Amino acid sequence: MKLALAQIDMRLGDIEGICSRIxxxxxxxxxxxxxxLCVPAxxxxxxxxxxxxxxxxxxxxxxxxxxELAAKVEERGVACLVPAVVSVEQVPLxxxxxxxxxxxxxxxxxxxxxxxxxxASMWEPVVFELAGTRIAVTFDFARDIAQLPxxxxxxxxxxxxxxxxxxxxxxxxxxVADGHYADDVAHxxxxxxxxxxxxxxxxxxxxxxSFVMDDGGRVMAAAPCFEEGMVVQEVRRGEMGxxxxxxxxxxxxxxxxxxxxxxxxxxxTVAARGFTRVVVPLEGDLPTSxxxxxxxxxxxxxxxxxxxxxxxxxFTPQQxxxxxxxxxxxxxxxxxxxxxxxxxxxxxVSRWMDRxxxxxxxxxxxxxxxxxxxxxxxxxxxxxxxxxxxxxxAALAPASLLAASTPRTVCAPFGDIYLTALEFLARYRxxxxxxxxxSTVSLSAVEDHMVRIxxxxxxxxxxxxxxxxxxxATLAALEPAQIDxxxxxxxxxxxxxxxxxxxxxxxxALALLLLVVRQGEGYRRSLPxxxxxxxxxxxxxxxxxxxxxxxxxxxxxxxxxxxxxxxxEMGRLETRGAERGLRVRGEILGLLGDLLGLTPEQRxxxxxxxxxxxxxxxxxxxxNQLREALLHLSEHDDVPDGGRQTPGMxxxxxxxxxxx
Length: 660
What we know:
The chain is of the alpha/beta class and about 650 residues long.
């Protein structure tokens, strides 16, 4: 059987457009001799459709369009396997629709109804046969590869997990050279077709790289990474064919894969919002400079507009020098990237507000004015705005970020990347072409931005100057890497206070960081859309915004867990039951002693463990003797009873004795 994998990127939920594209891919697959075409999983509903799948008209349009598509692909003589998330009894289910002979067959729902156990069986791998090949369909490779039904020739795996920089396996074929997939497939002795999406679907990003692997764990065919493509491969169980050279397979490189994933996210997100141009704020720092380079790579220089802002709070010669250097970096970057640069310079903030502005409010008001400029130029150019927010910003200073955002801000590409990681990402981008200045791509640039974040934290304590001074001194002692490491352990890995290295180095600083993260929960929910490229983004880590508890550690105490409390209670109940049993046994033995006239010494001996053991042995011996006597009685049919024969009665007819 020939199998085709169509690695296509379409706008999420464009039902008619997606079906039309699938029909075109079916024609190409038929021309290549394929008998089964597979398409990616998140095209119709994404991987987190929420209540959309419960909307009756959406389900109606999906089924109607699939019926029309089934008729079209039947004309080509190709069967189609189309995955989509649906609702079955108000439960989301990753369904696999088989379009065959002009029919639409929901395989997993059908299997559940047939077995009359919908809740259990619908999550098991579904199996069907096509062109003499027995095919299993799964959405969870790790769980199902070891428990496939016997006799399967091919496993089709629809990847739904988006790109995760901490999980190389989400990069599909790029992870094979490092040992992923191959051993499991060879041990199972089955062909594998991994259908991987490419593109951005809301916060989830996929990098492509679909592949077909034979039952020996060798890659036979692979689609490109980060772009659309089609793979057609003959599946022949037990036959050796020509495989791809492992050395020529794409290899996972952390910064490269992250950069390309962000590029896809920007491209697809901007297009999904109906825009073709973007406006990028330029501050001459690392985040905004790198964002401009990313926007150019995603959309092209003609569709990117940079916006520089002059600062009015410049009073000393040293400040004037730094401001002049900053403006020069902005202009040089725009010229290097060949993008349009719009510059705006506002006067003193006090004149804007027509009142005296306290020093602590100047920065916040300046961000708001810059946001107005951004919104105005974006409206004039019919463009959207990109934000340079990092995950460190979102964790520690979300309130000030809202002041700088506009209704036209569509996304923050770095919103799930910590500040210190941007330096390495910028170094990778400069290896492609040196568009960023040396001063921008440096540790000092990271430290400068972290100083701004810390100053935002300190400003929230301005009502108590002595407390603000203590906060500033505590955070100033930390390196940027220490701050980001603590945030990564807390947010991404859910580590508790005492499990963090910083808890032993600077517990006060760690407690302060966790407090600030907790206080910003409500503000973060209003920040622009960010891609999910880590083990846990803030979009997945939701805490109550009004929460008053903050993690301050256990202070040397052992961790308390519910299961330990339950086990402690179970032990108490068992001890109490044993004590009650001893008391009841003593009372019974006392009663027997009174009836039989036993002496106190005999009663004590009977109540002891040795006495109890002898009683159990005697009881077992008596039962065995009685059982043997009954068996002997049942074996003698002739008994003296007036010349009559009384048939023996087997021992299990005596209700007194247990048969266990």
